[in-house]
Structure of ABC multidrug transporter:
Amino acid sequence: MAELVLRSLYQDGDASGIASPLALALGKVNSVGISIPTWATSFVLWPIILLLSICILALRHLRRSKAENIDEDQPGFVVTRVPIFYDILQQVVRAALLSVAIVGCVKDGSSTASEACAIGYTLALDAFRILVARSRNSRSAVIHHVNLIVFIVGLITFIQLSPNILFIGTQTQASIWLYLKLAASILSLFVAFITPREWTPPRLSFELAHREQAAPSPEQTCSYFSYFVSYGWLTDIILKGSKRRLVIADMLPIPEYDEPLVWRARILDARKRFKSTLKTLAYTLRHNIARMVFFAALTAVVEFIAPLGLYRLLSYIQNPAAATIRPWLWVSLLFLGPTLRSIAYQQYIFCSTRLVVRTRLCLIQEIYAKAARIFDSEDVGQQNEKRPEGVPEPLDAAGKKKSERNSKSESITNLMAYDVDAIWLSRDFILVCTASPIEVTIGVSFLYFLFGPCSFIALAVMLLSFPIATVLSRTMSGFQREVMKKTDRRVSLISEYLSSIRTIKYLGWEDIMAKNVNTERREEERLTWRRNLTAVAVAVLGDSVPLFALFSMFAVDTLVLGHPLTPSTAFTALSIIETLRLQFVWIANVTRFVSQARIAFGRIDKFMLGEEEIVRHPEGPPAFHNATFRRAQQQDSFRMQFDGRFIEGGLNVIAGASGSGKSSLLLSLLGETVLEEGSATCPRDVAYSSQVPWLINDTVRANILLHEELDQKRYDRVIDACGLRPDLDGFERKDLTNVGVNGANLSGGQRQRVCLARAVYSRSELLLLDDVFSALDSVTQKHVWEKCFHEDVLQGRTVILVTQMQAAKDAADLMMELSNGQIVSTTRRGGVRQNSNAPIDALRVQPRIKRPVETITALNINSKPSLARGLEEKVDQEIAGQGRNSRLLFWHYMLFFGGTGRAMLAMLLCLLSQLAFFAVPLWLSVWVGASSTENAKTVGFYVGIYGAWLLSFSTISAMSQAYLQWSARKAAHALHQKLVTAALWVSVHWYDKNPPGRLINRFSSDTYSLDTVLVEYLRIAIDNIFRFVLRLTAIGSIMPTFALPAALICSVGLVCAEMYTRAQLSVKALTSASQSPVFSFFGESMTGKAVIRACAGMQDAFADDLARRLRVYARAGETQYNLNRWICVRADGCAAVIALFTGVIAISMGSDAPAGRLGFSLTSAIGLGQTILTMVRNMNELEAELNSFHRVREYASLPLETDTAENESGEVTPALPEPWPSQGQVEFRGVTAKYALDGPDILQDLSLTINPGERVAVVGRTGSGKSTLALSLLGFTNVTKGAVLVDGVDISTIPLRVLRRRLTIIPQEPVLFGSDVRFNLDPSQTAPDEHLTEAIDACSVVESLGAPRAREGASPEEPGINSSAVALNLDTPVAPRGSNFSAGQRQVLSLARATVRRSKVVVLDEATASLDHVSDAAIQQVLRSAFRGKTILAIVHRLSTVMDYDRIVVMDSGKVREIGPPLVLYQKEGVFRSMVRQSIEHGKGGEWTPEKLEALGSAGAQ
C-alpha cells in the first residue's frame, strides 16, 4: 500500500518510465537527481516568499500595541534572553548553508541564485533580531520566519534527492552539494530546535500577588526540543534528587499561568455562565482539553506507522526480489513510529497531568469559596434515602435504628478529598473519545486491506461486546454511589472523633469509638468488594474481546475461505489487534473512572446548587426590627424573636440563662441564622469573638493580627490590655510561639484572651464578644475588665458583650435579658464607656486587610516571603524523618494479603496469565511456519490450539485479577483496623505537634488508594514486568546477536531509571505532604467561618491563604508528573532503538531464519515499546500509590499509650481489686510532672492528700498548673518523680483504659458526639435506660436542659415561640460535636454523663464556666446531691462557687501555695484572700459578703 503511494510520486524503475503527475510537477530525473522544478527556478517562488515575509513582519510591527509590552528593564524581574552562544551557533550554521548553496549554484546548478538570496535574507533577519529588536514578540516573530524559510529550503532539497534515497535501482547520481545542503538545512533546524527560548514577565490583570520568585519556570525558557521531545529541562532536578533528598525549595517554580489565583478567577467566572460543574470545568480548561484532543488524535494516527513498517519488512524478507523500495525505509519506520508516538503520547500525558493540577486548583478553591458562604449549622440526622436492595438499615448494639451522622464540614472535606480526585482520574476519557474512534477506524481499514471482508467479523465481535460492557458499567456506577455514601459517613465519623480526641481519652472510650468506625468500615468494604469484582469483569472483557475478534477473523479466513495465513498478514494483524486490545483495556479502565466521576460531579453539583448561602443584613447600626430568626435550616429548629437597637459607641451586655439564645443573638446579627420575618441592620465590618475560642495553627502574633498590618504601638497596648504579657514572657519564642492545632499549646484562658486580643486589635467599629471571661481566673478577669473596658482601648467603638459577669451588667450602657429566644427586658443607662471623657483611640482607621487589591501590570514578587517559607518548612518537616522506601515495599504490601504463601500465589497467577498471553503469538508463529513444512497438521488443529490458548489466557487473567482484589480487600481491612487503633490510642500529646488533617488524609485519600487504586497498579506493573522479560527472551532466542545491543540499551535505561527513582521518591513524598496543609487549613477555616465572615475582606484574605497552600502543592505536583515524562521518553527511546536493531538484524539474517519466527520477534520488538511505556508509567504510579501504603503503615505503627502496665521486672501487675476505687482517696506524693519528656516541669515536688468524699477546689492564675494536676490523675502527664495514688494504688501500675474508666472528668470544653443522647451518656450501652433517665432527671434542675432539639433552647414550660418543644429524652438527636445544643447545655449533658459513670473520684475542669449564675448554682446543687460521698477535685476560676467546698488548694508555678477551708484561707492574709479581693464579684453581689461569710463560719463551727 505504502509502496504504491510512493511509486505514484516518482518514475517507476529508471528514468525511462512514465512519470506521474506529481513527478511532472516536481521535474524530471537528471544527472544531479530531480531537476530543479520550473516553478522554483523561475524567480517567482523565492521572491514571493521573501516579499510575504517582509510584509508580514512590517504589518506586525505597525499593529503592535504598546499594551502588549512591558518595560523589560524594570527592577525586580528577571528577563531571560537567548544565550549568545546559541545566537552565534545559528548564524554559523546558516552561513555554512549559504556557502553550500552558492557553491552548488556556481558548480553544477544544484541551487539557484534566488535560493541563495533567501538564505542570505535569513542571516540578515536573524542579525536584526539579535542586534536591533527590543520586543520579545518581535524577536519571536523573526526567528519563526527564519526557521520557516530554512525548512522550505530543506524540503525542496529532500524532494530533489528522494529518488536516490528511497528507491532501489535508481540509475542517476545526485550532486554532492545537494546532500551537503540537505545536511546543513537539517543542522540549522536542529540548532534552532535546541535553542532556549526567551521569557519576559507577562502583563496580567489577575491578582497575582505573593509570587515566590520573579524568575520563570524552566519549562518557559527551555528549547522546543527539550519541551516537546526530551524534557531535558527536568534533568537538573533529576541530578539533584539522585544525590540527596529534595525539599520544597528544590521544586520547579510554577509558571504564572498556573498560579492558583489565576484559576480561581477563571473557575468563578465560568460558574457564572454554567450551573453544571462539568460544563464549568470544561469551559475553564477548554484550551488544555483542546491540546489533549490534538495530541490524542496525533497519537492514534502515528500508532500504525510501526505496523506498516512491520508489514512491508516481512513482505521484503519473504520476497526480496520483488521489492522496489529500499528496506531501510521500513526499518526506519520501526524506529520513527514508536518515537513519534512517544512524542505525541507524552505530550498528551503532559497536558493531562497539568489538567490534574489545574482541576484540583479550580475545584478546591471553588468548593472552599462556596463552603465559606453557606450556613454553618449541622444536620442532626440524614433524611431517609432510598437504600439499595440488600443493604440493611444501620442498627446499634441494642438493635435500635442508628442515627446516621452527616457532618456538613466533613462532607465538604470528602468532596475535596474523594470527589475532586475521582474527577481528574477520569481525564483519560478524552483519550478514549478521541483516539479510540480513530484507531478503530484505521485498524479496521488496515485489517480490511489484509483480509478483506473477514475484517468485519472482527469488528462485529468487538461491537457486540459493548452492550455487556454498558450493563457492567452501570452496575459499577450503582455500587460506586453507595460506596461513596459509606465513605462519607466513615470519614465524617473518624474526623469527628479526632477533633474530640481529648474527650475520648479522658473518658477511656477509645475501644468504643474504634468499634463504631470499624462497623461503618465493614459495610463500606462489602460494597467496595462488589464494585471491584464488577470492575474485574469489565477489565477481562476489554482484555479478551479483541483477541477473540482476531481469532474469529483467522478462523473464517482459513477454515471457511481457505486462504493461507502468511507471516506478514498474521503478525501485522496481531500487532494491530494488540493496539486495539490496549484501547479496549483503556476503555474498560476509563469506564470505571468515568462512573466514579459521574457520581462525583453529581455530588459537587448538589453541593454547589443545593446549599443555601447566608445573606448579610443591610449595612447600618446594629439593630433588630421585629425580627424572627431560625437557628438552622430545619423548620423545627430553635426560633428567636428580637426587637431593639444597640447603643452605638457604648457597652451593650446580653445576659440570660444558659440556652436562652445569647450566642444565637450575636450570630443572628451577623446573618448566620435564617431570617424568617422582620429585618435587621449591621455594620459590614465586625470583630467577632466566639464562645468557643477559634485559633489557626500559627503563632500567637498571627492569630492576633489575622491579616491586619502590624502596628507595634497598638499591638503592645492590646497585649497589655488583654493580660497576655506575662504569658508571652513565659514562652521561649514570645508571641512567635505556635499555638498548635485548635490552640492545643495554650490553656483555655490563654486561648480566650488571644481571641479577645484579635477582636480588640482589629479596626472594626463593632465588636461582638461572646462570653470572653468564662475561662479566666479572677485576677486576670479583673485585669482584662479594667484595661480593656475601662480604658480607651475600646473607646468610641460599639461593644456587644455576652457575659454572666455582674460587674459588666452593672456598668453596661444597655443591658438585655434573654429567655427562651426572646428579649424579656432591656435596661438603658449611662455606663462607664459611652459617657466617658477618655480620648478616642487615634489609631483606629478604616479596615485594611493585608491582601492585594490593585491591578498589576506584571507579576508581583511575594509580599509575604516568611509565610511562604513557613508553609514550605511545614511540608519539609512532615517528610524529614522519612527514609527512602525499600524497593521491596510492594512485597511488604503483598504480605498483608495473608502471608508469604498468598503473596507468592498472586505472583504465580500473574506469571501464568502472561505465559498464556505470550503463548498466543508463539503458537501463531508455529502456525504460519507450518504451511511450508511437510509435517503440517490440518488448519483446524492450529485454529483449535490457538483458541484454547486464548481461552486459557482469559480464564487465568480473570482468576488473577479476582484473587488480587480479594487479597487487597484483606490488606485494606487489616491496615484500616491498625490505623484506627493507632489514631485513637496514640498519646494525646502526639496531636499537639501533628494536625488531625494528616490523619484524615490517611483515612480518606490513602484508604481510597488501598481500596481501589493500589492493587490495580500493582497488577499492571507485575504483568508488564513479566511481559517485558518474556518479550526480550523471545527476541534474543531468535536473534542471538541481539543480546549485546539489548544489554547496552537496557543498561542505559536502568541508569536513567535509578536516577529517576531516587528523585521521584522525594518529590512524591513532598506532593503528598503538601496536601495536608490544604486539608488542615480547610478544617480550621470552616470551624471559624462566622469569625471570618464577620470581618470585611477577611474571606478574600483566607481564600488567598488557601491559594498559597495550593501553590506549594502545585509546585510539588507538577514536578512529580513532569518527572514521569522525563523517564517515559527515555524508556520509549530505548524501546525504539531496540525495534530498530531488531529490524536491522532481521534484514541481515534474510532467509536464514523462518519468516514466522522473524515475525514473532519483530512483533515482540514493536510491542516492547508499548510494554516498556506501560511498565514504566505504572511502576511510577505504583510507587506513588505505595506511598499511600507506606504512610498508612507508618501511622498505623505509631507508639501507643501503654495499656498494660508492667513493673520493672517485666511482670504484669496483678489485677485490681473490685470495685476500685472503693473509697476515693487521692494522694500526690512529691510529684514532679511534665507533658513532654524533654519539656519543662509543670508540677514541682507537689504533695497533696484528698480524703474520701472530700470536695476540694483548686484555684490559681492561668498557667499555675491546675489542669496539669487534674490530668496527672488520669495519666496524661509524665511523672518523673514521686507517685500519684488512688486508694493506695499507684496509678502508673494501672492500665490507662481501666484508670480512665474508673475515674471521671468533666472537661472545660464539653463535647458531644453525633448520634443521640443515649449514645452520649453511655456509648458502651451497658447501663440500663433507667439509670440514664435518672441522670437526666438529676440534672433537670438546670434550666438549660429544658431545650430539647435546638442549639439554644429553653424550658418547655416557659411560654414563647419554642414552648411546643418536646422535653429532652434519650432519643433526642445530637448533631456532630453537639452543635444543636448551646455550650451550657453541652456542659450539663457532660455532667449527666458523669453521673452515669458513678465514679468514686470526679474531676471538674472549670465545668461551669459557660453557665450563668443561676445555672451554676443549680449545678452545684447537683454536685452536692448526685455526687454525695464522691471525691471531687474541681478546677475553679469563678471564686464565687468555692465557698461550700471542704478545702481550697491555691496553686502557683506548679506548687501548692496555700491549702485549707475557704473561711480559714479568706481570714488569712494570703494569696487566696488577695485573689478574692481582686475578683470583680467581690462586693458586687457575689458570694463573698459578710452575711455569707458569717453563715459559712457557723456551718464550719458546727
